[in-house]
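Recall that a protein's primary structure is simply its ordered list of amino acids. Everything else, from secondary elements to tertiary packing, is in principle encoded there. The following example makes that idea concrete.
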Amino acid sequence: MEKNIEISLLFDFYGQLLKEQQQEAVTLYYNDDLSLSEIAQQMGITRQGVRDCIKRAEARLYGFEEKLGLYKRFGEVEAGLRRIEELAESLRDGCDRDKADRIIAEAKLLHE
């Protein structure tokens, strides 16, 4: 997965665990797509300071994922729900159509 997307997703899971300055820098860099210079000006620190702040935040996000695994688990649950939906769709044709429809509906609710 592209690093920018991966960091944004990890930030969704663990962003609140970062220091306030790290949260701001990551948000401005990855979500708002500002340059290091623009962020430095907005935050009142040097460009190098912004880079260091972002790198430390990235390391912390990867560390949280390594220890907690929430993002990985989320992906596994999503994949499992897709498999359940596919299996229920295949059941629709031969078995109890009502039960298959209920399984599909429940999986879709969880998927959302």
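The longest helix spans residues 70-94. The chain is about 85% helix and 0% strand.
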